Amino acid sequence: MPDITARPAKRGRPPLRSREEQMSLLLDAAAQALGSGNFANVTMDAIARAAGISKKTVYLLVASKEELLSQLVARDLSTLELLLESGIDCAEDLLSELRMYLTLWARLTLSPLALGLYLMAAQGRENAPGIARIWYQEGAERCLSLLRGWLGKAAGKGLLANENVEAAIELIDALLISQPLKLFTLGVQQSWSDEQIEQRVEVAIGMFGRCFIQHAPAP
């Protein structure tokens, strides 16, 4: 009879991870470090250890902490960008799509990760201007630009007036993003639940609908 006695498994090197897997682990570790609020841990050494990746390998993946944070912001925004790709033909479609976009936008902007990046940008605006640029140009301004382009298309279909696009963006940004960030900066409120975000979105949607939507005249 063949010998079926169990033999101990051979030890060897752990399986090699692909570049995509390593990058994903690195981004997850950076997100966790930012969301913890302990900015002393937002270093390449600490992030590499948390991801289980050697520092040498980290610098083969990204050239700097700023590049890593830039890719982290881009990963979050990739989901947001997909929301505004469907066509809109009436006011109801516009409000429905806008509600989904604003909800995800607010959740991303008011998440522990984004708030951590915001604080890093504010505190390091003089000695680390690259982080401030990432937060504003690649994060906040990118979200506004997406919304601006989409509302411009809606205006092209007669759902709101072209001259109202910028005013609508300013109203939405003030209600949904700027005011919560002000409260956060002043220490009045440190986090937002999904329910609180949804309430703010409904207020923004209601005011947008009353002030800017051009409904078709009744027959």
UniProtKB/TrEMBL annotation:
InterPro entries tied to this protein: Homeodomain-like_sf, HTH-type_TetR-like_transc_reg, HTH_TetR, Tet_transcr_reg_TetR-rel_C_sf, TetR_C_Proteobacteria
Pfam family of the protein (one): TetR_N
GO terms for MF: DNA-binding transcription factor activity; transcription cis-regulatory region binding
PROSITE patterns, sorted: HTH_TETR_2 (PS50977)
Residue ranges flagged as DNA-binding region: 43-62
The HTH tetR-type domain, residue ranges: 20-80
Key words, A-Z: DNA-binding
PANTHER family: HTH-TYPE TRANSCRIPTIONAL REGULATOR RUTR, HTH-TYPE TRANSCRIPTIONAL REGULATOR UIDR
Protein name: TetR/AcrR family transcriptional regulator
Species whose genome carries this gene: Pseudomonas viciae
Organism taxonomic ancestry: Bacteria, Pseudomonadati, Pseudomonadota, Gammaproteobacteria, Pseudomonadales
